[in-house]
Amino acid sequence: MLGTLLIVFLTVATAPAQRILAKPTTNDAVRHAAAVSKVVNDLRGDKGAAAKRGARAVVKVSMRNMQFYPLTLKVKKGDVVEWKNDDVVPHTATSASFDSGSMNPGTSWRHTFTKAGQFAYVCSFHPSMTGVVVVK
User: Fold this and answer.
1) What is the pTM of this model?
2) CA of residue 61 relative to chain centroid, distance
3) In terms of DSSP bridges, do strands 72-75 and 80-85 run parallel, antiparallel, or are they unpaired?
4) What is the mean pLDDT of the chain?
5) What is d(CA 91, CA 126) in angstroms, rounded to the nearest whole number?
């Protein structure tokens, strides 16, 4: 009886280890490479990859250290700009044509640019925080 229990235990205990140590298949490697590629392109804001997937490009602006990063942003008509508050205090992204309202730390807000032009914006709480979106 004890021998049977030991065999059952060893079989159950080693099955997960065998799955972990098993060689990945070619399909696993291809799926993993595709997933990594998508994440890298999304983090870089790769407009080409976004267009291939049929989505609009999302270009990111970070609010941190009482500044907008980048200060000047160049996008195309139809692109989406996402402002993210990576600071410790509330901020806004406010211009004559858009207004995020108050954004608490850790929150984001998006705006789609449908017209060409230069759009200067400011944080209404911190007037020294300024930026420009150039839409072609």
Assistant:
1) 0.61
2) 11
3) unpaired
4) 78
5) 8
Instruction: At 60, list the tokens.
Output: 């990111």
pLDDT digits (tens, 9 = 90+) for 96-129: 999 999 999 999 999 999 999 999 999 999 999 9
- The Cα 101–Cα 25 span in angstroms is 50
Q: Which residues contact 40 (CB under 8 A, 6 or more apart)?
A: 46
| Rounded Cα gap, residues 101 and 30, in angstroms | 43
DSSP 8-state symbol, 97 = S
The third-level CATH classification (topology) of the domain covering 56-135 is Immunoglobulin-like (2.60.40)
Beta carbons within 8 Å of 103's beta carbon, 6+ residues apart: 63, 83, 85, 90, 91, 92, 93, 109
Question: What are the extents of the domains in the chain?
Answer: 2-35, 56-135
